[in-house]
Structure formats: structure tokens, C-alpha cells
Amino acid sequence: MKKYNSYWKIAYIGAGSNLDKPIDQIHRSIEGLKKIKNTQFILSSSLYSSSPLGPEDQPDFINAVFAILTQLNPHELLNELQKIEKKQKRNRDEIRWGPRTIDLDILIYSNLVINNNALTLPHPEIQNRDFVLMPLAEIAPDLIVTDQKNVVDLLEKRKKFNLDVKKIINDE
User: Would residue 105 show up in a list of annotated catalytic residues for this protein?
Assistant: First the structure.
């Protein structure tokens, strides 16, 4: 597949892990992102601990959001993220919203809107996930996400529905 174009596009990637040393898994995913061709790693949010969205009989998750610049098209980027997940032993046969070594999602890719079998952009659940909104608000508070609402507005609207999401002060 050819490059999408020669222009750099900003993308925001959500990361989550609750198996096999989750903080290490997040750090390993950053290293993987830094190795993607035609892509520059820009910024990471702090790490956040969150209660699981799915089955409750699993460990809490560690979450973060990353900003990258890329010349890859969204489907190529998705393919690269899935390679990182596979390298980190992500099991795609797992229970929906169940435990995982790493989950990498494209949250937003520039101002692009896509809805097909392989990819939906912006990610359709951003506004419903505090563990995405909180780290995203840290690195891109004015980012317009949905219905002309920015990240901070969406987070404020959701305050009364928050899962147990906490910023991790020291992630070492």
C-alpha cells in the first residue's frame, strides 16, 4: 500500500493493559510506536489506573493516550498498531472488554471520519470512556471530538458517570 500522502497527520492513540506488568506493557507500546515507519511519536499522557469496563473479575487497567504524527493512512496505521499488539502477545480471541496485555486504538486521525468494517474514526466510544477522556484532556484539552464538543467539555458532561479512574503520580 502506498503512503496516504506526503503530509503529516496528527493521530491520537489510546492504550490500555491489565496483564503481565501493565505499566511495562504501556512503555513497550511507546517504544513500538517510535519504530513505525513514516511516523513520529510526539507526546504521552500520564498513566491512569481504571476499573475494568467489562467483566469485573479482572485486574484494573493502566491507560494512556499518545499523540503521533504520521504519513501512513489510517488503515496502515491500524495494521502497525496490531503488529505491536501481536508482538506484546495480545490475544485477539479474548473476551470482549476482558483482560489483555495491550490494546491500542486509533482514537482520532486528523479530522478524518471513517466507518467501515475495519475501522471507525473518530473512535465511536471516546465520549463514553473516562479512561480515554482524562488522559486525552491532559495532552489535547481543546481537541474537538464529537458534535463540536472538545475533550474537556465531554469530560465535564460525564463527571457524574465516571468509572474509578485515577492518575498515577509515579509510574516507575
Answer: yes
Contact 131, 165 (CB under 8 A): yes
* Domains identified in the chain, total number: 1
pLDDT (tens digit per residue) in 122-135: 998 888 888 999 99
Q: Does the active-site annotation cover 158?
A: no
Range of the domain at 130: 9-167
In a domain, 133, yes or no: yes
Answer for the pair 69, 9: CB distance below 8 angstroms, yes or no: yes
Distance, CA of 35 to CA of 31 (rounded, Å): 7
Residue 69's CATH number: 3.30.70.560
pTM above 0.85, yes or no: yes
Q: Is-catalytic flag, 90?
A: yes
- Active-site position among 90, 129, 130, 153: 90
- Max Cα–Cα distance, the chain, nearest Å: 46
pLDDT tens track for 58-71: 899 999 999 999 99
